[in-house]
Amino acid sequence: MSKYSMLGVDVDKRGVDVFKSIIESLHKSSFTPIIRNPLDSRYGLVMHVDGVGSKPVASYIYWRECGELKWFKGLAYDAVAMNVDDIVCVGAEPICLVDYVALNRFRIPGEEVLKALRDGFAEALNILRSLNVNMVLAGGETADLPDQVGTLDVSATVLGLVKLEKAVACDGIVDGDVIIGLRSGGRVKYESIVNSGIMCNGITLARHSLLKEEYSLKYPEASGGRRYCGRYGIDDYVDDLGMTVGEAILSPSRIYTPVILKIIEKEWSSIKALIHNTGGGLTKCLSVGSNIHYFKDSLPDPDPIFYLIHRESHEDWYHMYRSFNMGVGFEIVSSSDSADNIIGICEGFGLEAQVIGRCMKSKSGNMVTIHSRLGRFRYGY
Questions:
Q1: How far apart are alpha carbons 73 and 252 in whole angstroms?
Q2: CA neighbours within 13 Å on the CB side: how many for 137?
Q3: Which CATH superfamily is domain 3-193+251-380 in?
Q4: Which residue in 24, 50, 330, 370 has the most C-beta neighbors within 10 A?
């Protein structure tokens, strides 16, 4: 059993498949469902909802320790990233977004936190607009739920449109197609700070393994009834990270959508699948396509945050690749002759990208094989 699952997190999300039978998606193998548009048969509707994991708990601890509300701002940026980067995986352009914030006002200064979140949403939307992605915030909901929420929760829902003739249905993958990995860490041209690369997955394990026990004693509402077992203060600077532990955990998720839309514009005919490596880490592709063996043997070295979590949590590398993006936040499956052009587009945004593997046909469902200097691992249904 993984250390992550012992904290009550199911990476496999067992049980969610019960909903698939009532989802009326036009493409069964696509990354997200594409729904028929009753008003215009040329376009499909794509709607997606996602939250920011347990990052709000880390924001809460940082605020309580340092008194700075800025640690809540990045949560809104995360909520935008987690949603737009999922719908762009089928080629959809985001149109509008609504937010949902659940608060415990006994512990959270509601008005001040909402202002910080507003600034975070505004920043994300302005960055997208500057890159020709014209999505608007169309309202939302704030709920006071002190009996249900220990601190706060932040999520959002996004609506997008995709031309059905240009939808990325993930059903044309063939032997020899390459997998291009886009880095999650570092800094791209439209980001204001260096990104640790962690995005929004694995935060529970990161908190419990890195942060000092005293936080779970001081703030039991932020520990889920379990004691933290780390040795770091949230504001401790770690040389290998180049930032504090809290900054690394709360580093805003990279928004890939502007880059992907440009790649779709220039290289659509060569794109076979688009994969946002969130829940499931580098095995997220298991749910994409049919009877595909994703063979990844040229992965970049993971960002320092992943080495730190591995060392402090004693989680094995097999489960690290299953739970975290390990430095590759987005994958593009394309024909091999377009790889250089796609990588060139990424580099134009200051985004590191490289071929990390290839696709082969499988006779027994989808599989992932990872060959790296950290070990050789196989995953599959």
A1: 9
A2: 21
A3: PurM-like, N-terminal domain (3.30.1330.10)
A4: 330
- Nearest C-alpha neighbor of 302 from the set 252, 356, 361: 356
Contacts of 197 (CB under 8 A, 6+ apart): 183, 184, 185, 186, 251, 302, 303, 305, 306, 325, 327, 329
pLDDT digits (tens, 9 = 90+) for 298-331: 999 999 999 999 999 999 999 999 999 999 999 9
Question: By the 8 A CB rule, do 81 and 89 touch?
Answer: no
Q: How confident is the model at residue 5 (pLDDT cuts 50, 70, 90)?
A: low
8-state DSSP, 185 = S
Query: Is residue 332 within 8 Å of 171, Cβ to Cβ?
Result: no
Backbone dihedral angles phi then psi of residue 335, each to the nearest 5 degrees: -65, 150
Distance (Å, rounded) from C-alpha 70 to C-alpha 130? Answer: 23
Q: Where are the domains of the chain?
A: 3-193+251-380
Q: Which amino acid is at 314?
A: H
Under the banding of pLDDT at 50, 70 and 90, the label for residue 6 is low
Tokens of 176: 């020899």
- Looking at the chain, the number of H-run helices and the number of E-run strands are 11, 14
